[in-house]
Amino acid sequence: MRRWPDGGIAVRMGEIVNLRQARKAKARVVAAETAAVRRAQFGRSKAGVAGEKAERARAARVLDGALLEVDVKSGPADETVPGEPSPPTQPFP
Predict the structure, then answer these.
(1) ∠ at Cα 12 (8, 13), nearest 5°?
(2) Exposure string (b/e) for 26-47, b if CB count within 10 Å is 16 or more?
């Protein structure tokens, strides 16, 4: 440090700062704080997540148990109405 004639102290220059990087760093800090607040407000506990997963699994089992037996070998059902001609088929070029 250096002393000025009027008794003041000269301080060295500060660190050179890239303003773009500083602005982005500040935005990241603000975003992290906002995310933490929202996690606290809207987040779910592990028990809540596990309970919802179990409920979805139970609903899938109930749905699978209620399915009628489908014959996979026969293919899709014929959608034509009896007595009406089927639409014409065009061969591929």
Answers:
(1) 120
(2) eeeeeeeeeeeeeeeeeeeeee
Nearest to 65 by CA among 57, 74, 73: 57
Q: Which of 12, 14, 13, 10 is nearest to 22 (CA)?
A: 14
What tokens were used for 35? 């995310």
Give the tens place of pLDDT for each residue, 38-79. 988 888 888 988 999 999 999 999 998 887 776 666 655 555
> Percentages helix, strand, coil for the chain, rounded to the nearest 5?
50, 5, 45
SS3 state of residue 10: strand
Please give the helix or strand (H or E) that residue 3 lies within, else none.
strand 2-3
